[in-house]
Amino acid sequence: QKEVEQDPGPLSVPEGAIVSLNCTYSNSAFQYFMWYRQYSRKGPELLMYTYSSGNKEDGRFTAQVDKSSKYISLFIRDSQPSDSATYLCAMSGGGGGNKLTFGTGTQLKVEL
Amino acid sequence: NAGVTQTPKFRVLKTGQSMTLLCAQDMNHEYMYWYRQDPGMGLRLIHYSVGEGTTAKGEVPDGYNVSRLKKQNFLLGLESAAPSQTSVYFCASREGGIKETQYFGPGTRLLVL
Is B56 strand, coil or helix? Predict the structure, then answer.
């Protein structure tokens, strides 16, 4: 079993929809949680960063972490065609080089 | 400020050939990382460095070597390329301390025939 599980999709939604992307994890030592966005043939770019449990909002994006359930989510409001990309969750327990463990990514397509 | 850059962008190798991938960052970051990305496997850590002159193994280090002679550069070497090393390689850097965020380069596509 992988430490981080993420549904690969693809997920197709109409423009303006609310998108929910999720990851589950098994390592209770994880305390730093990130969402990266990766456009086709590009490197991942950081979208959201959260420490421990709770919510964080940035414009149309909201990240949620529920450590008790080992579950993290990314919500995208008023989705746009430009949001079409692969979304990777990543997490770290800190220490030892602070290595990140990534989910496999969810491919999102926002249709006009 | 270019961030993280990678050279080359694309390369085709024959089995058994060697090559070096170069990663450079201009953010004065302490930590640097090499990942490979394969369909259905996500990003997997190959090697990483916590400072100039240091290297450590990641999740999938076999068949690769690295060097960090200068703080701004992190080299990934393939001594004898194999078709299983066909992948997209990403370099990343991180400031260090409590800053967990890693910044990624644009990637190098490698095809081993």
Answer: strand
Distance CA A77, CA B93 (A): 30
- Could you report the per-residue pLDDT of B69-104, keeping only the tens digit for each? 999 999 999 999 999 999 999 999 998 776 678 999
Enumerate the residues of chain A whose CB falls inside 8 A of the CB of residue B104. 36, 43-45
Q: What is the pLDDT of residues B1-20, one digit of tens each?
A: 779 999 999 999 999 999 99
Residue pair B90/B40 in contact by the 8 Å Cβ criterion:
no
Q: How far apart are CA B107 and CA B7, in angstroms?
A: 8
Query: In B, which residues are within 8 Å of A43 by CB distance?
Result: 4, 90, 104-107
Element of type H or E holding A4: strand A4-6
A19 touches chain B (CB under 8 A): no
The tens digit of pLDDT for each residue in A15-34 reads: 999 999 999 999 998 989 99
Give the helix/strand (H/E) hosting A30: none
How far is residue B42 from each of residues A22, A104, B64, B90, B104, measured CA to CA in Å? 15, 4, 18, 12, 14
